[in-house]
Amino acid sequence: MCIRERNVRPIVKYLFQVNLTPTQCLIVRKIAYTESKRVAISAMTRYGKSFCVAIGVALYILFNEDKRIAIVAPKYDQAEILRNYLARLIIVCPELQALAHLDREHGAERLAQEATKKRLTFRNGCEYAIFSAEGDADRLMGFGANLLVIDEACLISREARVKVNRMLGDDPRYGVLVELFNPWETDNQAFDDWNSPRFEKLHIGWEVALKEGRTTLEFIEEQREHLPPMAFQVLYESRFPDQSEHGIFSLAWVLAAMERKESIWADLLRLRKAFELKRASGASEFELNVVRKLLMEYKVIVCCDPADKGLDKTVTYWGCWHGSKYEVAGWHSEATSDNQRIARRLFDLAQEYQADRIHIDGHGLGVGVVSRLRELKAEHNTAWKVVSCLFGEAAGKKEFYANRKAEEYFRLRDILKNGLIRLPPIQELKAELMKMEWDRKGRQTILIIDPEDKSPDWADALVYFTWQDSHELIYDFLG
Questions:
Q1: Distances (CA, A) of 449 to 101, 267, 434
Q2: CB 72 within 8 A of CB 151
Q3: Ranked by mean pLDDT, which of 189-198, 234-243, 337-346, 380-389 comes out on top?
Q4: Three-state DSSP state, 246
Q5: CA 340 to CA 310: how far, in whole Å?
Q6: For 101, phi and psi rounded to 5 degrees?
Q7: Is 376:343 a contact under the CB 8 Å cutoff?
Q8: Gap between the Cα atoms of 208 and 215, Å rounded
Q9: How far is Cα 149 from Cα 51, in angstroms, rounded to an integer?
Q10: How far apart (Å, rounded) are the C-alpha atoms in residues 71 and 180?
Q11: Contact in structure between 41 and 48 (CB atoms under 8 Å)
């Protein structure tokens, strides 16, 4: 009856002598009965999520035949945490012992050694193995899984995750993926999955743990007092950090910009259509001028950060600016550094969308692109303006900013903070914005610190998109 009704609490009590809380039961049930094909679990530290997942895996082995389970973590010692929990469950559960190919005739110590192997098979055809995703993760190749469990998922690189995810390729229709993590970082696949509608999210903050008797209010308040706010947010509220200590942008601002419904680009297209309809219907010059005046309030922008070396990408945005608001309506990226080709693409985009301005990185490869665009502008007698964006030039507010790059990044910061921009949901852009940091050069001026791993092409291009000639904006960051 308990199995049919999926009531795991009495089953777990009987098999493993463990009493589960209601939310722990939920974790176990999701895995044991594969109720969801994609599950992401973020729980307060020391809540017991890894142990609950191990129980879920143990029941999955008991309830199924011929299934392969892969347990993956950034390093072997992290994967061994889940494996060791599984070993304990096998040792205390006669039903699992009967299924496992273990040497039970030479005492408990030998049994424990057998149960803690990196790979263990069962008489019902099930098998589990543990893997490390460290480095290039080539060791993961060749093992397919019906159930893939990834522990400390936020600490696995995007490159390694590509190989980890391939493990489900043998069972793409029914394969189950379970992710566990402490939400320290946002530049990883786990963060993307947490925000994906394909995943069922189990979020267990300290309030849930307190209600279920897994912690005390006195302990939580003590941790809140002693920990930095970001560490408390990650460890006890189980939430991704909104911003690093020296971060420029808040995750909440970026997500809000990517989820914003209001579209000034759609407004512009409607006005253009209305103008064409009026002109086609023989409207008076007065009526046409009314619409022309409204259209002149919109400035269409095409911008580009050309790739200059290595793994950089040429990133292009187009959209519009109206009053104090901006919208990126489209984008393109490619691994190219041919200035003639880049210039031609930008010219075509400017013509297609009737651009008013083209903003280009004016350093390095961008010098040639700017030069070629100005030639095309003269050849075709176009109205749009070519703006060379120079990060290294002096800031308008020299007393605050080390250079124009810092000034324009903090201008973008205010635009995002005040909800004045609509962005497409580009993962690379979100990741790069969250990595951008600032510091002070000397006593006063602010300097932008680029990420160490790669050039922030997507973020830089967005700064070029909102680039303006004036320095009149007062930054509320400076109080």
A1: 55, 37, 12
A2: yes
A3: 380-389
A4: coil
A5: 19
A6: -80, 75
A7: yes
A8: 9
A9: 13
A10: 11
A11: no
Residue 171's closest CA among 259, 257, 68? 68
Residue 387 pairs in a beta bridge with 359
Q: What is the pLDDT of residue 474?
A: 40
Q: What are the residue ranges spanned by the domains of the chain?
A: 8-235, 255-478
Q: How many CB atoms lie within 10 A of CB 297?
A: 13
Beta bridge partners, 176, equal 147
Three-state DSSP state, 300: strand
Distance from the Cα of residue 128 to its chain's centroid: 29
Residue pair 225/231 in contact (Cβ under 8 Å)? The answer is no
Residues β-bridged to residue 129: 70, 119
DSSP 472: -
Instruction: Kindly report, residue by residue over 160-180, the tens digit of the pLDDT.
Output: 898 899 999 888 889 999 999
- Is the separation of the CB atoms in 212 and 74 below 8 Å? no
Q: Where does 311-364 have alpha helices with state H?
A: 339-352
The rounded distance, in Å, linking the Cα atoms of 147 and 35 is 12
Two tokens at 47?
A: 């809540």
Q: Determine how many CB atoms are found less than 10 A away from the CB of residue 32.
A: 23
Say how far apart CA 327 and CA 345 lie, in whole Å: 20
Cα atoms in the 13 Å half-sphere on the side-chain side of 321 = 18
Q: Is the pLDDT of residue 231 over 70?
A: yes
Which of 112, 158, 152 shows the shortest CA–CA distance to 132? 152
Q: Say whether domain 8-235 belongs to CATH 3.40.50.300.
A: yes
Under a CB-based contact definition with an 8 Å cutoff, are residues 202 and 28 in contact?
A: no
Helix (H, G, I), strand (E, B) or coil at 68: strand
Task: Summarize pLDDT for 192-203 with one digit per residue, the tens.
Answer: 899 888 999 999
pLDDT at 310: 58
Rounded to whole angstroms, the Cα distance separating 277 from 121 reads 72
The pTM (predicted TM-score) of the whole model is 0.71
Q: Is 82 exposed, middle or buried (0-12, 13-18, 19+ CB in 10 A)?
A: buried
User: Is 57 within 8 Å of 81 (Cβ atoms)?
Assistant: no
Q: Which fold has domain 255-478?
A: Nucleotidyltransferase; domain 5 (3.30.420)
Two domains, one topology: 8-235 and 255-478: no
